[in-house]
Amino acid sequence: MINVPTAALDSLDGLAFGDAFGDRWFGVLRRHGPAALETRTLPPEPLWRWSDDTAQALVLVRELVEGGGVVDQDRLALRLAAAYAQDTHRGYGASMHDVLRRIATGEPWQGVVAGQFGGQGSWGNGAAMRAAPLGAWHGADLDVVAEQAARQSAVSHHHPEAITGAVAVALAAALATRSRGGPAPARSDFLQAVAERLPDSDVRSGVRIASRMPERTSVRHAAEVLGSGYRMSGPDTVPYALWCAAGHLDDLHECLWVTVAGRGDIDTTCAIAGGVVAARTGVTALPPAWHAAREPLPPVVTR
To answer: Nearest 5 degrees, angle CA 9-CA 15-CA 21?
Structure first.
């Protein structure tokens, strides 16, 4: 078995922290309202469970290990379905319940995925939320990043916007990996570098808009303009998550607090942002209490 690049494991760790941190805020906001978020008050809970974001990222990393960094789409589809079957209570979206159940029963993934939503396929954010470790893995070659990110996306999300969202996240993680040990790129430069490698799409337009936002832009305004995942689509999730990450490439802790403040699909926006930033920083600077609270990752992907 090949060695997993350190940046990919760091990215996976950061993704899992973002996912678990963001996911618990759904309950906190229901019980305590926005005041807890505004004061950054985390009521104590014994365990921060991660959701399907991390479950699918784990599958993707295992696939990269098995394939030497190359995605075998047939095998990845079966791996995703098997992971779902082993634990269906990780917060999977409604369409993914249908897709993964059908793949698990032997239906070819190509037909199942392409047939979603009247034949246009899902444009959800599920392919993007798991993509950061892949980008960190292939950080040395951005063409490979884009190719492999699109391949892994297609096994669950057929719509071009979902695929482009996954490519955008993987490219951001690759660029963050490339900057390890050096100065952090400026937010606008970082986002423009992602956008220029994307095809014409709503995702690219959103990332470009994010790149032009003034530094004084508030989180609330960024979330309103870019979308923070309320529609759970690639175009209304990825640009905001990357805006948050690009502005905090040296501070994972602050990045996650800023990202969650945009509300919306907070486990996924935090998973994306966490996976990108941790590809550069790792996760050791997060508070010890966070390390103690977050559900551990399976040994197969830990160092």
So the answer is: 135
pLDDT > 50? residue 261: yes
Domain ranges of the chain: 6-301
- Alpha-carbon Rg of the chain, whole angstroms? 17
Q: Which residues contact 90 (CB under 8 A, 6 or more apart)?
A: 50, 51, 52, 55
In 3D space, the residue among 74, 79, 37 whose CA is nearest the CA of residue 57 turns out to be 79
Percent of the chain, pLDDT > 70? 95
How many residues are given for the chain?
303
The CATH code that applies to domain 6-301 is 1.10.4080.10
DSSP 1-68: -PPPPHHHHHHHHHHHHHHHHHHHHHHHHHHH-HHHHHTT-----S-B---HHHHHHHHHHHHHHHTT
Query: pTM of the full predicted structure?
Result: 0.95
Read off the tokens for 152.
């892994």
pLDDT tens readout for residues 201-258: 999 999 999 999 999 999 999 999 999 989 888 899 999 999 999 999 999 999 999 9
Contacts of residue 196, Cβ cutoff 8 Å, sequence gap at least 6? none
Average pLDDT of the residues of the chain: 92
